[in-house]
Amino acid sequence: MLIVRSLAFNLAFYVATTIIAIGGLPTLLSRRAVIRLAQLWGGVTLWLLRVVGGITVEFRGVENIPPGPLLVAAKHQSALETLALVTAFPDFAYILKRELLWIPLIGWYLSRSGMVAIDRSKGARAMSAMNEAAADAIRDGRQLIIFPEGTRRAPWAPPAYKLGITHLYAALGVPCLPVALNTGLHWPRRRLVRRPGTSVIEFLAPIAPGLERARFLEVVQERIETASNSLLAAGRAELAAGGHAVPDAAPGAERSGSRVV
């Protein structure tokens, strides 16, 4: 049943993505229209996850999201949060690697929507270019989303935070919103299986600007990792009760305050 349901969701997801990508071509005339299209895509994906995949995505701590320009530092375990987070912010911008802009059709949308693309081959110059493009996004009042570890990490993998997040925090002078999650339990990286249950994305208390860089990195990592491990422990217990095998968990407790979609 799990395999059939997972295959059904994957098929529905790719069909919906193709329809939205082709049907949305007229939105390329406007950056904000592309943002709205991406939010539609995210909403459709969340609906398909719930109806077809049996996965309910729950946003917790939405009251912690401050208005206006913002640096969002999110744990990255799955493609799920990449799609889900676009529904949580009115004018988001992702920091992503430049190679994604070369993908046919998808790259057009990424370029037109004003994402912050990094050319990793340029080393230190890439950091300077990222800071400049990020500052432009913040001046426009946007919510800048970064995955501090740079790539997806399996649940309970040792943290591997990069220094890019500290450069942005110091340069932008806006609050940083840490985001914890357990999405890797339900939409594992590099696997087709989709485990049913409640997948949680939690917005933690924002970190005010002004901390020294090393202290900021310590605080943001501790908050994200502690809360993510707590969510993973609760999610693992839920999946185990449903008969789904998952990796060993770190101890932790559930957190409160939620919005379910």
Question: Would you give an account of this structure?
Answer:
The structure is a single chain. Strand 3, helix 4 and strand 4 form a beta-alpha-beta unit. The C terminus is likely disordered. The protein contains seven helices and eight strands. The radius of gyration is 18 Å and the shape is globular. It is an alpha/beta fold and about 260 residues long.
List the helices and strands and how they pair.
Elements: H1 2-23, H2 31-51, E1 55-60, E2 70-74, H3 79-84, E3 92-97, H4 106-112, E4 116-118, H5 124-139, E5 143-146, H6 164-172, E6 176-181, E7 197-203, H7 213-241, E8 258-260
Parallel strand pairs: 1-7, 2-5, 2-6, 3-4, 3-5
Antiparallel strand pairs: 1-8, 6-7
Helix pairs in contact: 1-2, 5-6, 6-7
